[in-house]
Amino acid sequence: MNLEFIVKSENHNVQKEIIYKIKELINYKNLEPGDKLPSERMLSEKFGVTRSNIREAIQKLEFYGLLKSIPQSGTFVANIGVIAMNGMIDDILQLKDPDFKSLVETRILLELKSVRLAALRRTDKELENIKKALEAYSKKVLKGEDAVQEDLLFHLAIANASGNSTLNTFMLKITPEIITNFEKYHVCDDDQALKGIKEHEAIFEAIEKQDPSMSKLKMKEHFKALYQYCYST
Around Cβ 219, how many Cβ atoms within 10 Å? Predict the structure, then answer.
């Protein structure tokens, strides 16, 4: 069995156990919205795990709006009722790791929206960042080198230019998993990577012209091969 899979599975189980224990702690101490949780060090000692494990679990609960961390102050229970919080945590604990197809579907939905917004809202600085990411991708592809990460950085630059922090956060959340799956399944061969340069250029030009409809169309064309690959396997 793959060692990376074993480690990932173990870390996932540890995180779920910590989240469950945080839920129990909140209920046992009758913590209410605005109440402070024990420090990461105290939780680490109490639960018998590392501080990094605690931090990851807290970040996950923050992502779902159940906790709020304030620098130099600590972590606090968010403004949500106990019944709702317990229900949401139970749902989180039942979540499964996303498979490749669901990641692709989610990415396409997010990017079709973000590219339209980027065309409407992008600043000159954000446009320059997209151009730099495009150039970095093209340079690696033309040298025959793997450019999966540069590809994703191009798309992240577009998400950032959308001006929608939630879209940007979701893209940042799923990007590491996407990179892992791309490398695992060897999704982008040399021909597709070369074609990707022209597709990226077309997307960039549409954003530069601030044409949301064309931007969305060019992004859909760019994802056509990925979508077909995903549903032919």
Answer: 25
Q: Which helix (H) or strand (E) holds 232?
A: none
Amino acid identity, position 78: A
Q: What is the 3-state secondary structure (H, E, C) of 79-119?
A: CCCHHHHHHHHHHHHHCCCCCHHHHHHHHHHHHHHHHHHHH
Tens of pLDDT, residues 129-165: 999 999 999 999 999 888 888 988 999 999 999 999 9
Helical packing angle, 51-63 and 82-94, nearest 10°:
110
- Spatial separation of the C-alpha atoms in residues 131 and 114, rounded to whole Å: 16
- For residue range 175-228, what is the model confidence (pLDDT) as tens digits? 777 776 665 544 555 577 788 899 999 999 999 999 999 999 999 999 887 776
How many CA within 13 A on the CB side of residue 194? 6
**Residue of 102, 108, 99, 103 lying closest to 222 (CA atoms):** 108
CA 143/CA 91 separation, integer angstroms: 46
Beta strands in the chain (DSSP E): 67-70, 74-77
Domains and CATH numbers, the chain: 10-94 (1.10.10.10), 100-230 (1.20.120.530)
- The residue count for the chain: 233
Q: What's this model's pTM, rounded to 2 decimal places?
A: 0.64
